[in-house]
Each structure stands twice: as C-alpha cells, then as structure tokens.
Amino acid sequence: MFEELKAHHASVADRRFETMVNDTRAAEFSAENGDMRLDYSKTNIDGAGRDLLIDLLDRTGVAAKRDAMFAGEPINETEGRAVLHTALRNLEGGRVYVDGQDVMPEVLATLERMERFAKEVRSGDFKGQGGAITDVINIGIGGSDLGPAMAVKALAPYHDGPRCHFVSNVDGADIAGVLRQCDPKTTLVIVASKTFTTIETMTNARTAQAWMSESVADTGAQFAALSTAEDKTAAFGIAPTRVFGFADWVGGRYSMWGPIGLSLMIAIGPDAFRAFLRGGQAMDRHFQAAPWKENLPAMLALVGIWHNQICGYATRAVLPYDNLLARLPAYLQQLEMESNGKGVSMDGAKLPYDSGPVVWGEPGTNGQHAFYQLIHQGTRVIPCEFLIAARSHEEDLHHQHQLLVANCLAQSEALMRGRDLDEARSKVAGKFSGDELERQARHRVFEGNRPSITLAYPQLTPEVLGQIIALYEHRVFVEGAVLGINSYDQWGVELGKELATALQPVVEGEEDASGKDGSTAALVAFLQKHGV
Ligand code: F6P
User: Is the ipTM of this complex over 0.95?
Assistant: First the structure.
C-alpha cells in the first residue's frame, strides 16, 4: 500500500527540508481551524508527498469510514459495537441512531443529571456527614482516570469547585497518599469504571469504603459511580440516584466527554464543562466537513503516517510547552497506543507494516534539560510535536510566557537547522586548535534536518482543550482507518490481566510456583524471601 510513498521518500530522504521552508511553504503546509494552527512545514513532506498521502485517504475509504462512525454503525467489529463518543458532545442533540434508536435523549438527560449533581456538590447542598464536600476522589484507571486527571490539571485556572484527587494504581501507596489528605466526613468518592470489574479500581474502591466507614455511618451516601454496568454499581451499595451510566459504544479511552468527566465537571462547573464539549463538537464538525488538505485531524494523521510507516521513525514525542498539559503525553499514550497498537488488520491478517508509534513526552522546557540531548544528537530521528499557547493564564508573569514561547520555537528551529561542522569549529576556535579543535567541534555538531510539527492556539480554555482532545481522537481514527486496524478494541491488555489473577495465589503463598517458568518462579521466591 505504501510503495509509491516509500519510493517518493527514498528520492527526497537526503534533502535538507530547511531549504524549502519559506513564507509560502509556511502558509501552504499549515492548516487552521477554529482556534488551532497546525504547522507541519518543518517536515520533509513536499507537495508531491502530500498528494500521495491524501491519496491514501481516498484509497482506504477514510471518508466512508468516518461517516459510518458518526452514523453509529458498528465499526468496532471485534466487539460488535458502534463508536459514538461524539454523541456525548452533540450538544444540540441532532439525532444519532444506534440499532435504529435515537440515543440523544438519554445522552442529554444524563448530562443534565450530572449537571444537577455537580451543582449540588459545588454549592454545598449535597453534604457529607461532616458538611459540604471539600474533596472529591476519582477512583478509576486507564480511560476512567487519564482523561479527567489530565483535564482537571489542564483547566486548573477554571477550578473553583472542591479539591479533586485521582487514584488509579493498585499500589496502595497511591490511595494511601490521597486518603491522608482528605477528611472522610467531607469527601465524595467517585468510582469510575466502565465495566465495574477492573481489579485495581474495585480494590481501591473497597479500600476507600473501609477508610470512610471508620468515621461515616452511611458510606454509600458519599459514593457515586460512573459505569455502563449499573447492576454492579447497585451491588456495591451505590444508590441509583448517584449512578451515572453510559452505553458500551463509548470506549474507555474516549469517555471523558460523558459521565467519566464528572470529576472535571465538579471541578470547573457545568458551564465550563459545556464549553469543553462545544470545543470537541466544533472539531467534529470540522473533521466531517473540511477538505482533506485543510482538515486538521486528517493532516495530523498523515504526518504521523509519513513519519512512522514511511520514514520508519518508531516513536513520536509530544512536547507541550504548556505546563497545564503536563498529563497530555500520558493521556495520549493510552489514546494512541491502546487504539493503534495492533498486530492484525480488521480481517485478522498479520499487519504487513508497522502499527501505531510509541508515544511519549514531557512538558517543555523540562524535557530540554532531560532527554532533548538524544532528540538533537542521538542516532535515531524522533519526530517532535510541540504545543504552544499564545497566552498563558498567568498575566503577571507574561515575560515568563514569552520566554516559554521563544524556547518552543527555538527547539523546532534547532531541530530543523542543526549546526554544521564549520559553525561548530567557529564556536570553539578561540579555545582549541589543531586536532583538539577538530575533536571538540565534532561533539558540537547537530545534524539537523529533524522534523517537528507545532500546534498553536490562543490560550488553553475549556473550549480549546475540547478542540485539542477531539483533534487527537480523530487523528487516531484516521491513522487506524488507513492502516485498516480496529482502533476501538484492546485485546492486548487481557493476557497480563489473566496471568496476574492466576499469579495472585502464588504470590500469597497459597499455591506453589511449580507450573511457572523458571524466571517467574525465582522472582516470586526472592520477593517472598523479602516479605511480599
Ligand atoms: O485494561 C484496559 C482497560 O480496559 C482500558 O481500555 C480502560 O480504559 C481501563 O482498562 C479501565 O477500564 P474500566 O473503565 O472498565 O475500569
């Protein structure tokens, strides 16, 4: 499928793309919509390459697949489910059918219930045994944690509700650290789990219940649940009035727009939460209507495919120069890697090309003082994705924001331009001479010609965050659709879960490790010797 693109890449691979980057290219190889500008001009994609990439979208039927997703068709074929997280932000409530049934009345009714509850918690009308709620603990993992945790941090300037804490890890250190900060009599615990069976979440939920029961008579009254499994929430003792359900056509890692976003809604208030939904919906409309060349999710996906499947760059660094987005890389790791980390195509055949890339990153400028060394001078090329706001929320520290912006732009410039040997020599000429000058200069060479893209926006408001998250969701969709994989299942997490369940009695010493491989048995023995 990628032959022509690979041949094109081979013919331009040695070109220094810096030589192409002028004003015209900057305009031609950027796309703008709403509050976003995506600049992909600092890459080796040229007009012919882009045409071939766009051609891929047509050859793989991405438009039809996109329309099928929005129309509620069961595009998650291995689980026989529709993929309709977009319905959760369909605020005007235009009809969306699943199996002939309009799902919007229920979606909007649940949103309104969430809003009523969030308002009660925020106003103090909803009380714990000790009075108004001061702390909310969201217990969930993966998609039931990363989205709201990322967004609560991202929208900290809008946070005017009770304190929000997130517990995900089954490691007791996680929940113990949070419980120590909270008063059980004024704490609301939200158990967030699509399935309500996830062992980490259920274990932490029971720990929170036991903690609260030491000082609160009716613990159930201070618990809420977010789940598709309402029977299981009842069995846990949570009253239906505080259970916010959603349908199985909302994937875990796509679920923050609905009930899984309750902690975010309590933190920033229903109006700001609606603004977040509006941002997501605006990106949906753009994705559905814009021609491919101007279509941000499509172009972001094509740049990803160019770097990963065509150039063979196996990883992608997400580098938000926006400290509020500190959790975005972790959030995107699940969104992108759980969605597109698949080894077979939709029909079960082994994938004849690489699946989605490794996604990683940290906020700038912190990363500059940690791993950028490798990005600039290491032997592997790592495409970088920068995010930058024109304005921060810290108006009194405007000069710091300008410094941040300068750093962000300088990094993409440095990656592109590099520094050749002559320039490196001139940098050290005053200090060294002869062979030593040559040796010292070589250490200061930057090859450059390293690609990056920049996503710029005016300010990280709820609406802009909604646009950013929906942009990445649709990017994942487009990459998956081109690769012909199912982006909406996650069978790859099952084996580890099954083996952990089987190993638990071995670790506890109730079963011996005889059936285990030598390495696992020896590690169990070592940990048991030291008190596990
Ligand atoms: O194990 C992976 C996974 O199923 C994710 O896809 C999901 O987001 C996470 O676990 C949590 O699942 P749940 O919301 O059902 O507890």
Answer: yes
